[in-house]
C-alpha cells in the first residue's frame, strides 16, 4: 500500500471514529443532564414545518424548511434540495450545483425565487446552478411535482420554488450571526465564511406590527481543488480496447460567494397585504488548471508502449456569475373576490473579463503507455518531466459575457362561492413574460513563437494525487508574454463570432381553474394556455465565409389539468393528478450559429420543437404526529419531442458529409416509477432515545426513448436519468445537542449519446454515494458550536464509455471539514 493511500485510509478512520464519538457523547451527556423537554429549535422543527406545508398543498409537493434558528441543513440551496424525495444533484468540483427531479435533467425543470422565474447565468443553459444561492438567504425550498393551471407549465420534473426570509416568519426581533472555517483535504487550505440574518416588525399608522423588514447577508471564500484523469471516451473498440489519448488535470480553485437579500412586508389591514422581495447573489471562481497529456501515435492497449505526442496546458481564468431578482406584489380582498398581482424582474449574468483559455506546450516522446483502463496511469520516458522538452505552441485568450433577463407581470382574480352547499372557488388570470438571452465572446489565438519552452514559464511542481505530474506553468509569465504583442493581429474572428447569439422568448399565458370541496374530496380542474414567440440571431461560417442567421417561430399549447385529493382519515390522504407541461429546448440547442468546413459541420437547431409531456401521479400520504410522515407515489410521464445530440452525416442535405453534429427531436419517450418517503421523530421513546430522528426516501424509475439517424434506430434511457435515487438521514437532538448523519445516492445515468449506430461510445456517469456528518452543541441557548464533515467516503466522479471498465473521466475531491459558531436571538 502506498503512503498516500495509507494516509487517506487513516484519515477516513479518524473522521469516522470522531463522528461516532460525537454521536455517542451527545446521547450520554444528554442522559447525564437529565433533559426533560424536547428541543425548541433544530431538525425536528424544520421537518415539522415542511410536512405541514406539504400536507396542505393542492399539489404533490416536497419542502425543505429552515430550522428554528433560521438555517437550512446544507451550505447551498442545491445540497439542501438533495434531501427531498426524488431529487438528486449534479456536482461540480464535489459541490452540489444543478438539481434533477425524478431523474429529469436540470435543464427541463424551472426555478423561481419569490414567485418569479430565475434565468440561467450560463450562456447555453436553462438550468440554474443553485450553489449560487447561499443557504442563509433562503427561508424555504419546495419542489412542486404536479403543476396546477395557475403555475407556469415550463417544467417536466418539477418547479423548484425558493422563498427568502420574511419578517412574518418570526415573532418580533430575530437575528442570527454565524462564522465558519472549512478545511479542504485536497488542497490543504482553510477557508472563512460569515453570514447574518435579521428581521423585525414595526407598527405603521393605526396598525400593530404590520410592517416587516428582513435582511440576510452571506460571504464565503473557499479554496479547494480536484485531481483528474480523463480520456474523453477516445477508445478504439474494433481491435480490442485501444486508447488513443489521455490527459491528467489538476484543478486549484478559489470560490467567493456573496449574497444579500432585503425584503419588506406591509399589512395595512386584514384585507390587504403587499411585499417587496429583493435578492442579489455573486459567485466568483478563480481557477487554475494544469494539464499534462499524450496522444499515442497508434492506439494502444494497457501495458503496451510506443511513440506519442505529449503536451502540457494551462488554463487560468476568472468567471463571475450574478443573479439579481426584484419582485413586487400584493393581495386585496373585496368581499368574496380576491385580487392578487405581481411584477418581477430577474437578471443572471456570467462574465469572464479575460483569461488564459489555453496555453499549450508540445513535444514528442517515446516509450509511452498506460496502466488500468478505469483510472489510467501514465507511463512515459523521463524526458516527459523535463520542461525544456516542451515548446510553446499557442496561447488562447478569451473573454465572454452571457446575460439572461426575464421580466413578467401576473394578475389573478379568484371568487369564493357556494355550490349546492359545498365550498368552491373560481380562479382565472394571466401572465406576460419577456425573456432575452445573449452571449458575446471574444477570442485571441497567439502562435508562431520562436524557441520558447516550458522551462521559460515553469512554476514549480504540481501537487497531483493520481500519479506523477511534473512541472506546472506560470500564468503570470504567459500573461507577460502576450501582453507585449499587438492583440489586434491575433484576434480570431471565426471563433469569436460563431459563439455569439441573441435570443428572445416571449410567452403570453392565461388560465382558468375551479376548486371544489366535496365532502372528503377536493378537486381542482382547469386549463392553461401558453403562446410562445421565439426569435434568434447569430452568425455561421461556411468554408471561411460568414453568414448572418436569423430565425423565428410561434407555437401555442393548451394544457388541461385535473387534481384530486381525498381525506381517508384525519391523518391520511390520497392524491391524484393529470397534468400537461411544455419545456422549451436549451439555448445551446437552439443556437443559430454553425461551422461548416469541407465535409464536417457542427450547428445548433433553432427549429427544434419544445418537449411536451402528459403526466400522471397517484399517491398516498400518512402523517404521524411531530415530524412524522410516510408516503408513496406512482408517476408516469409520456413525453413527445425529447431532444438528443446526434450526427446527421449521410442523411438529407448532409448526405456527403463525414460529420454533421447537431440536435434532433426524438419521436417519444416514457418515464415511470415509484417514490417512497418516511420521516419520524421518536419523541415517545424514553430518554435519550426520544431525541432520535430518522428520514429515508427512495425513487425507483425507468425511462425509454427511441432515437434514429444514419439509417439506424435504437432505444436509450433519457439522458441524465438515474433510475435509483435515495437518501437516508439519522439524527439525534435535544435542547443542547444535535447530530446528523446523511447519505445521498444516485445510480448511473446516460450523460451523452454518441452516434445512433455507436452505442459503445455513449458516455455514462457512474453511481455516487455521498456521506456527510454534522454535529451541533448549544453553549448557551443562543450560541451554537457546529462541526461538519462532508464527503466522508471520498466519493469520486467517474464517467465511462460504454462499459464501466473504460474511462472517459475520473475525478477525486477529498473530504471537507467545517467548524462554525452561530449566535441567534428570536
Explain this structure to me?
It comes from Stutzerimonas degradans. With 826 residues, the chain is mostly beta strands. The chain has a single domain (3-825), classed as Beta Barrel (Maltoporin, Chain A). Helices cover 8% and strands 60% of the residues. The protein is built from 6 helices and 42 strands. The protein has a 22-stranded antiparallel β-barrel. A 5-stranded mixed sheet has the order 1-6-7-4-5. It has a two-stranded antiparallel ribbon with strand order 2-3. The protein is globular and about 85 Å long.
Question: What is the gist of this entry?
Answer:
Helices cover 8% and strands 60% of the residues. It has a 22-stranded antiparallel beta barrel. A five-stranded mixed β-sheet has the order 1-6-7-4-5. A two-stranded antiparallel ribbon has the order 2-3. The chain starts with a helix and ends with a strand.
